[in-house]
Amino acid sequence: MKVENTQVQMRKGILEFCILHIISRGEVYASDMLEELTSARIIVVEGTLYPLLTRLRKAGLVEYKWVESTSGPPRKYYTLTNKGSEFLSQLDKTWKELVDSTNKIIKSSVKKDSSK
Q1: CA distances in angstroms from 38 to 21, 42, 62, listed in the order given
Q2: Which domain holds residue 45?
Q3: Residue 72 DSSP code
Q4: Euclidean distance between CA atoms 53 and 56, whole angstroms
């Protein structure tokens, strides 16, 4: 078993959560999302991002509008809907619970290791 595979799965598991957080800050263009995710080392490619954005839109969590661009074709800017904000709020609560639970387990493991 390769650690890289598990690391990729962990990142994929929080991708939707991170994307919703990025969008929650205001109108955002997909390439800006990709840039932020990449800089945060949550590597994602367009082939992953666009289907996820479509799924979030169909679920009523995000919406988009077309904005004319001076440097090329119009751009799609995404925003969170009210339903998306409520959904993200629930995910925030779950995230905090997961972090607390995981830290409890990790810290317990450290204590056991140090008692050897």
Answers
A1: 15, 5, 21
A2: 3-114
A3: E
A4: 5
Tell which residue, 93, 81, 90, has the closest CA to residue 56. Answer: 81
If the chain, 116 residues long, is cut into consecutive pieces of 10 residues, what is the mean pLDDT of each piece? 87 91 96 93 84 96 93 93 98 96 88 60
- What would the two tokens of residue 97 be? 């619970």
Token pair 């661009």 is found at 69
SS3 41: coil
Q: pTM score, two decimals?
A: 0.84
Give counts: helices (H), strands (E), the chain. 4, 3
- What's the chain's length in residues? 116
* Residue 99 belongs to domain with CATH number: 1.10.10.10
Distance between CA atoms of 36 and 115, rounded to whole angstroms?
41
Please count the CA atoms within 13 angstroms of the CA of 35 that sit on its side-chain side.
5
Q: What is the rounded CA–CA span in Å between residue 51 and residue 57?
A: 10
The count of structural domains within the chain is: 1
